[in-house]
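It is worth pausing here to work through a concrete case rather than discussing structure prediction in the abstract. The textbook approach is simple: state the sequence, then state the predicted structure, then interpret. We follow exactly that order.
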Amino acid sequence: MRPFDHNAGHSTDLQPSRIESAQEDRPGLKQLTPDATITTSHETPQTAALTMRILFLHGWTSVPGGRKPTFLKDAGHIVLNPALPDDDFEEAVRIAQAEYDQHHPDVVVGSSRGGAVAMNIESVDTPLVLLCPAWKKWGTATTVKANTAILHSRADDVVPFEDSEELVNNSGLPRSALIDVGTDHRLADKEPLAKMLRVVISLQSSEAVSKPLSVGWGRTK
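Step two, the predicted structure:
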């Protein structure tokens, strides 16, 4: 029996297979002022130097347009959120790879099974942000690259927190790569959503790309 993904059924509304911000029709990335502040619908102010293009890969039985990709979109970023089939992991990887190859995102975010999909695509040096990645249940990848951050809750009753600890060890990442946040598998409450956005922005900054895990992101193991 397949594991239940708590991302399912929590979208506020169903969106098309890809969520795009109104900024998508602009060529390239919009340069903002250094002190530009963007405020999400959850009243979480964030400072960013760029409007980013983010590939968000949803979890098993989830759908595009969920709370996490919507949170990123509401923060002013372009979010690519393709529909991934539940019954064919290889096809899900193929779809994700096609999105990556076509749009060249600045960051790839994968939630639960989508985290496993993210690990199994060829994303070159693009940073990865994995949310409770179900890598032991799907796919063949057992390591991640250096510019990867993992958000996971110790209270996760779907994907064990220990799986992410093992992934960090397998990959030779520092302990700070694994961020303990949230109270369940979904990571859809205010604190983990804000942390996800902060980590995405930090990984994409020039300093974080060269030293992706040198900044303090909160609770670690």
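Step three, interpretation. The chain is about 30% helix and 15% strand. The radius of gyration is 16 Å.
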